[in-house]
Amino acid sequence: MERDVHQLASDALLAWGVTAPPRLIKNRENVVFEACGPNGERAALRLHRPGYQSDDAIRSELWWAEALGAAGMNVPLPIRTMDGDVLAAVPGRMASLVTWMDGEPLGEGGVPLAMPEAEQVALHRALGAELARLHIESDNATLPDGFTRGVLDVEALVGETPAWGRFWENASLTTEETALLLRARARLRTVLLQHAAAGGDFGLIHADALRENVLVARGRVRLIDFDDGVFGFRMYELGVAMSQNWDQPNRDALGVALLDGYGQVRALPDDAETLLQSFTVMRGLASCGWVIGRYPDDHPAVRDYAQRALEMVRAWI
To answer: What is the domain extent for residue 190?
Structure first.
């Protein structure tokens, strides 16, 4: 399989006039390589997962990145092919090439943050501010005709067919555990409906600002991997960012810092602290559904995601 994706990557790079072999970085949802750009610059090549995003949705993501870049944000920008396109086709996949972003990931899911707590707080404050800037510039952008990205509204989060899967049907759940997640779903539905009715902020969000997608360089943070970007609740964006901190002893301090950084740049709702807890749990439930079908029912990851969601829900309820 790895040899196959290397060949696809090499074939894709020909659309940019590049013959230098790429280096595999990640083979998960998308296959990501470090590559040379057409002018010898460092770049990231993505082989997009078949069936996940339409060609129009990928083009919309890359247009969005260009709009954010034009507004002064430091995000990966598309590099156009020799034909002037932002995408190239290889058998079974679409490929895109974007500018390289320097930095190290903020951390890794399931692994305690390594830096001193004061630095953790400072970086979460910086992340909150960066997400606020993202929302401001996304609202300021005039979307072109045909712009298309998914929508994570109330129904897509806690409806009968959530966008990330019916998390209460995770195969590892017992009857009692299923009942607990359904209780949480009902409670979250009430929270989300009330938030929406109160004019809850909704618009383009990154929707995947996990540690691995937040690069740190010289104390500054930058977002990468906009592949999951959707129209969604802005508080969900912050909940995603907190979802890997739920079991850290200093999670409260990190949540306060994230909200403080955001609030210094963009207004937050009055009940932001309470909403942050709810949307953090929402992400945990979504991940419990996301794993369904990606692994065999008896794979350890299926239970791991379920156990994480259950512990988050118990602490919240």
So the answer is: 105-316
